[in-house]
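#help-structures

NK: newbie question. if I give both the sequence and a SMILES, will the prediction place the ligand too? trying with pyridoxal-5'-phosphate
OV: yes, paste both and it writes out the complex. here, I ran yours:
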Amino acid sequence: MLPSSVTKLSFRGRDFYIKRDELLHYELSGNKFRKLYALIQAPSSQYSKIISYGGTQSNAMLAIAYLANIKGWKFDYYSKPIALHVKNNPQGNYKKALGLGMNSIEVAHNEFEKIVSGLFLHVNAHEVLIAQGGADKIAQKGISVLADEICLWQEEKKIEKLHIITPSGTGTTAYYLAKCMPTYKIITTPVVGESEYLRTEMKALGEISENLHVINTEKKYRFAKPYKEYYQIYQELKESGVEFDLLYAPKMWLAFLENIEQFDGDFLYVHSGGVSGNETMLQRYKFKGMR
Ligand SMILES: *Cc1c(COP(=O)(O)O)cnc(C)c1O
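OV: that's the protein plus ligand as structure tokens.
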């Protein structure tokens, strides 16, 4: 399965390379595959349970549910109270994860922080606790494999100057890419919050490398909200040959195109996966009359 392939994408009169990590697996795809790689490699006898926490439509949650299912591990997932209509009629990632045997544990809003911190104090040797969104030191192993694949590929292709692009939620992927590839520029944009939030998230992993470039769009976008520009660029990219996700990739491409003049050289976009979530996002776009 590894290394993932690289294809060329001609888009708006320029050529970009795309690292096709979304093709590694449909649900356990993209950077979730990389971040969970150390656990994918672990023998099933090593653990009996994975524990994590966060939102109920998270791609990380679904990826962990797959992993646990394949390995025969239990999966406890802590979240804030779930709306009754969602519980009665689960949708999307939440529905899939429940189908894979995820044990969903609801915690009151005001208790959430306390209970989550408590989890870290009580993991035993047969359990793994993964921080929200896979923002965990365990991710470094898989990201370093990705970094090695890129370096080898670049050598083979004899590309002189290569910059790496990938969108950020928690920033874990971009953070470790920058750390593992100190001679490359790693270009990212915050999709979940502002740049400040992204830096705080990254600092929880360690010192941020100087080769990490956080760029942004002029316009502010809110996470998981449908935008006409998002759909347009998604559609245009798809027509050029590669389908990206609708949550993270559109903002990364918009920010990149707004800032492209700052960088000279060739570009490799690391596809971060998430295409399996497009079905429900496209329904929302349709519902809003945006497509
Ligand atoms: C999770 C996710 C991201 C964000 O990755 P981080 O390592 O948390 O920054 C980006 N794109 C997609 C499609 C994702 O599912």
